[in-house]
Write a structure and sequence with these properties.
51% helix, four-stranded mixed sheet, disordered C terminus, 537 residues, 16% strand, alpha/beta, four-stranded parallel sheet
């Protein structure tokens, strides 16, 4: 009788490190010799659970057994749990095969072909299914407790991290693991955050452009090309501030568990919480659902800047067949007047009011001097820490460049260039570029020459900008550069902007380049140092 042999283990780790599959095959071949069977086909399934039928090798075997005529007369397995750990599914597949003349035979759990043998197989299947569920429950509980004790339970470390064995032994003598930062990958992560926040060579980059930027420079994600989805995950995942959550979803159904069931593992962060928060805010602001692309090209002066006190944006609407133009709360516009108590605001009146107050309050020399003085204080307080970081990056840069020089010297002296060496050279190249970008990001806070901005520079800027704000195109460009948002609440509009952006614009004016808004200006949209001022009714 020609038979097929089916061997399976549950995980790829078992397949790589265990002797189970070779032992299953040896015992099944011995059984075949003793029972005058010829093993014509072997189906080996490394790393697949028997709780369902989502197993490619298993499905191929079933297809071969159901063809006319079947490719074999019986499927030989070590035990019924190798075939299925679900009693109902086992019965369904066994009946399908039996109708086509194919038996399922266990060499360690022999049963007859009569009704008593069928009942025994059902009982064995029920015990296998129960044991599988109990093992899963205890394994899940042990993994959660492992995380609570400060050890990592994940299968593969996220990009930017590596799992490192500790001296503490866990189950089966395996060493427990913790996460550490993988320096080369972490440099790429920091580069991604820096590019998203500050752009490259004066040009802002979105997620798609960052993917292109990294691909053109040979940076990969562990040997695989970058994608928009991978990039978005890195920019939005809290693992990069050191927060790794386990037990978030059910592995069987994929459903999200209640947040109180989540288990937190903390590692060293790759990016600061402040940097992560800025990226999260920028991701939300750039989201097509939050800010449609039409807002960027809208001819309306305040489109994209105005927000209602209820938290929603204000959108442009018309009345009387287009004769009148208003700003209206988007929530009230979409859901009805009951959704928000704000009223429609005349577009012409509000535009004129904002421009007037911006020119006569914010851009007055006295107010500008106050803002620049505050920026000087902040810059002075942060300079020591930033200089320490610059020094550390410089030391890492020197070590990286020395490693590159050592490889070049070795190649010149006859060292063979193999795949490992090429990968190392590429890794050092990526590390150096990431360090340079990180260094530029830290130095950017020193780039605004705030100490060299004189009262006369502020006065000249104030005079020039107030004279040109009557030009609507100019006013829109400067408002969208200097102002983060304008929140309207009742009869008050509060304008929020950035000290650093203002200082940069004044510096550009000092150099005689303020007729147009500089293209790199959006790199200075630091929302954490906003200046809020009521503009009046």
């Amino acid at each position: 009788m020609h038979v097929a042999l089916y061997a399976r283990v549950s995980t790829t780790r078992q397949a790589e490190n265990d002797l189970s599959i070779p032992d299953q095959l040896r015992q099944m071949k011995d059984w075949c010799r003793a029972n005058a069977c010829i093993p014509s086909l072997e189906y080996i399934e490394p790393g697949a659970s028997a709780t369902d039928d989502k197993r490619p090798v298993f499905q191929r075997m079933i297809a071969d057994g159901l063809q006319k005529p079947p490719a074999f007369s019986a499927i030989i397995i070590h035990s019924f749990s190798r075939f299925f750990r679900d009693g109902i599914e086992f019965g369904l597949y066994e009946r399908k095969l039996a109708k086509n003349g194919v038996k399922v035979i266990s060499i360690t759990q022999p049963t007859g072909d009569d009704a008593g043998g069928e009942m025994m197989r059902r009982i064995i299947n029920l015990f296998d299914e129960h044991q599988s569920r109990e093992n899963s429950k205890h394994t899940h509980r042990a993994m959660c407790e492992n995380v609570r004790q400060g050890y990592y339970s994940g299968s593969r470390a996220p990009f930017g991290f590596k799992s490192v064995s500790t001296d503490v032994s866990g189950s089966r003598g395996r060493k427990k693991k913790r996460l550490e930062i993988e320096s080369a990958e972490a440099m790429i992560v920091r580069m991604i955050y820096d590019l998203y926040l500050y752009g490259y060579q004066g040009r802002m980059l979105g997620i798609k452009e960052i993917v292109k930027h990294l691909t053109q420079r040979g940076h990969t994600m562990r040997g695989n090309p970058w994608s928009i989805q991978k990039m978005h995950k890195i920019l939005s995942s809290r693992v990069y501030v050191g927060e790794h959550y386990f037990n978030v979803r059910c592995s069987k159904t994929g459903e999200k568990r209640p947040q109180e069931d989540w288990v937190l593992y903390q590692s060293d962060p790759i990016v600061s919480p402040e940097q992560f928060a800025k990226v999260a805010e920028l991701l939300e602001a750039r989201s097509p659902q939050k800010t449609p692309p039409r807002l960027v090209s809208s001819p309306n002066l305040l489109t994209g800047l105005l927000k209602c006190a209820c938290g929603h944006r204000m959108t442009a609407v018309t009345g009387k067949s287009g004769r009148y133009h208003y700003y209206k709360c988007a929530n009230r516009q979409s859901k009805g007047n009951h959704a928000c108590e704000s009223r429609n605001l005349s577009m012409d009146a509000l535009d004129a009011l904002i421009v007037e107050q911006f020119a006569n309050v914010i851009c007055q020399p006295e107010r500008l001097n106050q803002l620049i003085s505050e920026l000087r204080k902040r810059t002075k307080n942060s300079r020591v820490a930033e200089q320490e970081k610059i020094n550390e990056i410089s030391r890492q840069l020197k070590r990286t460049e020395q490693a590159q020089r050592n490889i070049i010297t070795g190649i010149e002296n006859g060292m063979p260039v193999d795949e490992t060496l090429r990968n190392r050279m590429q890794e050092l190249k990526g590390t150096r570029e990431a360090l340079l970008i990180e260094q530029a990001g830290v130095r950017r806070s020193h780039a605004v020459p705030v100490e060299r901005i004189l009262p006369s520079d502020i006065a000249a800027f104030s005079k020039a900008i107030r004279a040109k704000l009557q030009d609507k195109a100019f006013a829109k460009r400067y408002l969208h550069t200097l102002v983060d948002e304008i929140v309207v609440s009742g009869d008050t509009a509060t304008m929020k902007g950035s000290y650093a952006v203002l200082a940069q614009v004044i510096s550009e004016k000092k150099k005689g380049t303020s007729e147009e808004v500089p293209s790199s200006m959006f790199a200075w949209r630091a929302r954490s140092d906003s200046n809020a001022r009521p503009l009046g009714s």
